[in-house]
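F.,

This is the one I mentioned.
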């Protein structure tokens, strides 16, 4: 089985979004707003495969001049910077990009040349089967965590043993989760682009999510408030 990773943005990190001088008060605030949500939503939302063509130009407002994320989601759309598009180096047949009007945002944001990205390929890679014993344990663990007021145990999705995707970036056909190959993840990680992360599918939910990094597979164990960065523990070294 080939190495397969989930694809997510890292923007939900509260401290990452607001400087300490603002007491990290980003909860309840917005960092990106689509100014013409009606036309954008009517053209198709989520999972890309519903989007009509031509797609309306999304008008976005990002109010922070320090905003330099290369990948983020906003109101159901995935946005990528020009340097992220270059780093991903996707086959034109595997992805569609839609123009964005960021003229209402600071010049620093406009210079990122954002576009909406929609992968067009789907593959069947996830093993969604679960034995009665696995399901019973899963439910019991989550009920116990909820009663104790703690995060649920780390869990996720198993990949099919014979999973061998033909595309670098793709949706899983049954559930619409976005996945990628190891080659794709390494291109992005080596490029220096920020805020696209690659959770290990089997450990992508719960307290201790694991990620594909340049070092290999690392597990999130906490947040270093002084350094303003996650604390990761190396689980497995990968070439």
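My design for it:
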């Amino acid at each position: 089985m080939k190495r397969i990773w989930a694809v997510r943005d890292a923007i939900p990190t509260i401290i990452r979004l607001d400087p300490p001088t603002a007491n990290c008060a980003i909860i309840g605030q917005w960092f990106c707003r689509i100014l013409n949500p009606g036309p954008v939503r009517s053209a198709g939302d989520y999972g890309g495969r519903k989007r009509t063509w031509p797609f309306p130009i999304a008008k976005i407002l990002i109010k922070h001049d320090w905003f330099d994320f290369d990948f983020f989601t906003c109101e159901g759309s995935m946005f990528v910077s020009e340097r992220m598009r270059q780093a991903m180096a996707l086959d034109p047949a595997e992805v569609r990009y839609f123009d964005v009007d960021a003229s209402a945002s600071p010049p620093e944001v406009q210079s990122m040349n954002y576009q909406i990205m929609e992968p067009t390929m789907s593959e069947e890679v996830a093993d969604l089967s679960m034995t009665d014993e696995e399901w019973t344990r899963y439910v019991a663990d989550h009920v116990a965590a909820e009663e104790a007021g703690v995060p649920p145990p780390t869990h996720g999705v198993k990949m099919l043993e014979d999973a061998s995707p033909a595309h670098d970036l793709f949706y899983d056909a049954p559930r619409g989760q976005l996945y990628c190959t190891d080659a794709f993840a390494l291109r992005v990680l080596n490029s220096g682009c920020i805020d696209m992360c690659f959770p290990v599918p089997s450990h992508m939910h719960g307290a201790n999510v694991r990620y594909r990094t340049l070092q290999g597979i690392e597990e999130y164990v906490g947040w270093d408030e002084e350094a303003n960065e996650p604390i990761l523990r190396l689980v497995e070294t990968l070439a």
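The first helix runs from residue 14 to 17.

Talk soon.
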